[in-house]
Amino acid sequence: MGIWQKKERFEALLCGERADRPIVSGWRHFIDKEQNAEDLAEATVSFTKQFDWDWVKINPRATYYAEVWGNTYDFHDYKSVFPKQTRAAIQIPSDVWDIQVKKATSSAPLAEQLEAVKQIRQGLPDTPLVQTIFSPLTILLFLAGQSAYVKNTIYGSESPVSLKKLFTEQPAGIHRALHAIASTLADYVTELEHAGVEGIFYAVTGTAHPDLFDEPAFNEFSRQYDSIVLEAARGKRILHTCGAYAHPERFNDYPIDGISWDTFAAGNIGLTAPLKATKVGGVDHSLFAKNDINSIRTQANEALRLTSDEPFILAPNCSIPVNVTDEALGQLHDSVFEKEIIR
Questions:
Q1: Pairwise CA distance, residues 324 & 255, whole Å
Q2: Which letter does DSSP use for residue 58 in this model?
Q3: Nearest CA to 133 among 193, 74, 175?
Q4: Which site in 36, 221, 320, 343 is 20 to 30 Å from 61, CA atoms measured?
């Protein structure tokens, strides 16, 4: 092959093949530019062009999936990347029966993101795009006012339904709700591909952590619904298992092409782990808030060294904090070129 194009590298690496070099990207939230399709698209395109990322993980507002089923938020009041919750759709356990299948093009939050994707595609015609998809179980926790992040609480959610009460009182309703969410997401994934994405970034957001769900519970309430969404995707599928004790090896039998996890969090295996999908990550996302240029360079170089004999995508291990500096982002981008690795 002659000169590699961005989409060719992306496709090859996620097919388990080598390219002329690893690829790199970073992603962050734009909390002042995420309330409509036009602003999000403009911010995403500008950010991508500024740092010449090899591919784009679109980062919409963190709450838009919960909005589909009726959660409401105060977008003038944020804590970190989360607006203040003003209402949860599930306020008592029996409310799970109200969670119905939605048509993506008829749901305002999903239609908004489809429009954003179309505009980003127009602005970045040659750059691979993936859209962030939360797992059905993750979305269900948000609908109940629960955090999918271990030991964190949802900003504004003062008395959420307890998980024990929810899952013991309404097991049949939980399964029905999860199926409805998964079916909605499967339809959304299809519409995303029509809008121009090359794939999805499927976030199992903290639900693999034993403090939320042990493995039998995870298998019961996540696996079958993950399959509905992932198998609807015709493009590339990168799975992100978030936080500590994320068990990336648990997903070796999932229909995915890439696997992302926090290699520096407690209880997590490192980049040398025997995983089937192409590894995505290698750099601690918390370093970007500290503008720790030397550590970013060191971790990126070490990640590239450890994966020098396999396809690899250099990236932060999770979303980059919003107070990141341009210098830190520039260092992440430049790392794949400093190593001068030729594949």
A1: 33
A2: E
A3: 193
A4: 221
Nearest to 177 by CA among 223, 213, 141, 204: 141
In this model, does residue 341 exceed pLDDT 50?
no
DSSP string covering 150-170: TT---TT-SSPPPHHHHHHH-
Beta pairing class for 82-87 and 72-79 = antiparallel
**162: phi then psi, degrees, rounded to nearest 5:** -70, 145
Q: What is the pLDDT of residues 218-277, one digit of tens each?
A: 999 999 999 999 999 999 999 999 999 999 999 999 999 999 999 999 999 999 999 999
Select from 3.20.20.210, 3.40.309.10, 1.10.150.20, 3.40.50.12280 the CATH code of 6-338: 3.20.20.210
CB 116 within 8 A of CB 60: yes
Q: For residue 159, name the pLDDT band (cuts at 50, 70, 90).
A: confident
- Identify whether the C-beta of residue 5 lies closer than 8 Å to the C-beta of residue 55: no
Residues sharing a CB contact under 8 Å with residue 93, sequence separation 6 or more, in sequence order: 161, 165, 166, 169, 170, 173
Q: Crossing angle for the helix pair 37-51 and 326-338, nearest 10 degrees? A: 50
Helical pair 293-306 and 326-338, crossing angle rounded to 10 deg: 30
The domains of the chain are located at 6-338
Q: 226 near 136, Cβ under 8 Å?
A: yes
Gap between the Cα atoms of 218 and 163, Å rounded:
13
pLDDT value at 162 more than 70? yes
CA–CA dist 194, 143 (Å, integer): 28
User: Is this structure's pTM higher than 0.70?
Assistant: yes
The DSSP secondary structure of 79-130, one letter per residue, reads ETTEEEEEE-S-SSGGGGGG-----GGGSHHHHHHHHHHHHHHHH-TTS-EE
